[in-house]
Amino acid sequence: MLAFSLERIADEKFRERVTTEKTFKVLDEGTPLLVALSDRSKQGRQIGPWPKPYPLAVPPGTTRWETVVIGPPREKPAKRPEPGQQELLPERGGLWLKLKGLEKCELLTSTVLMPKGFQESTAISLNYAFTLLSREYEKHRISNTGNVYTRLFYQDRDKCWYPLDDLRRGVQAKAERTLLNQIWADIEKTLGWRPVFTTGKGTRK
């Protein structure tokens, strides 16, 4: 990833580009997600069914998998947001990654449907869904928070399971490529020329 010190950026146009907020939808409503949990109730043995194929980059100590599903949109509150505050509730079901510049990334989601039979049927976010599951199955932990980018997994087109962190890295890489293309376009415009690309057999004329 590109690294910048905003305090050293004098070009206002460039500063705006590296701090712009962009939102990318990465998963649709109805998408199942696997949650990796370190349930110690069976002294470290595997508990319940395990996904096949086995997910990649599984957190150490994982003994249990639970499934949550991205649900429909949340109901909007009756009170409107204060002036200057942005309404963060999505109008459709799904999962979005909100990128702030090139480094900071925020997850925006509709409701999360908890496993069948769970005391609370829905959660307002992936972070809260993880906390509820951790309270239930990770009773040895003092804190029931966790990194959802590494503890939650989605299934890609190849039917394999990958951590949500892969989606975050992909979005950041896409934003970085877009920024580099914009910078190069400005250089071409300033210099008034374009590079001559070559093929495998010679130079294009």
List the helices and strands and how they pair.
Layout: H1 12-19, E1 21-28, E2 32-37, E3 64-70, E4 94-100, E5 104-109, E6 112-113, E7 122-123, H2 126-137, H3 148-151, E8 152-155, E9 161-163, H4 164-191
Antiparallel strand pairs: 1-4, 2-3, 2-8, 3-6, 4-5, 6-7, 8-9
SSE order, one letter for each helix or strand = HEEEEEEEHHEEH
Low-pLDDT residue spans: none
Percent of residues in helices: 25-40%
Strand-pairing-aware structural class: alpha+beta
N-C termini distance: 35 Å
The main β sheet shows up as: 6 strands, antiparallel
User: Mean pLDDT score, rounded?
Assistant: 80
Tell me what the structure shows.
The structure is a single chain. The chain is α+β, with helices and mostly antiparallel strands and 205 residues long. It has one domain (8-75, 88-191). It is built from four helices and nine strands. It has helices spanning 12-19, 126-137, 148-151, 164-191, and strands at 21-28, 32-37, 64-70, 94-100, 104-109, 112-113, 122-123, 152-155, 161-163. A six-stranded antiparallel β-sheet has the order 7-6-3-2-8-9. The longest helix is centred in the C-terminal third of the chain and has 28 residues, at 164-191.
Provide the descriptors you would attach to this structure in a database record.
6-stranded antiparallel beta sheet, 3-stranded antiparallel beta sheet, elongated, 205 residues, single chain, alpha+beta, 25% helix
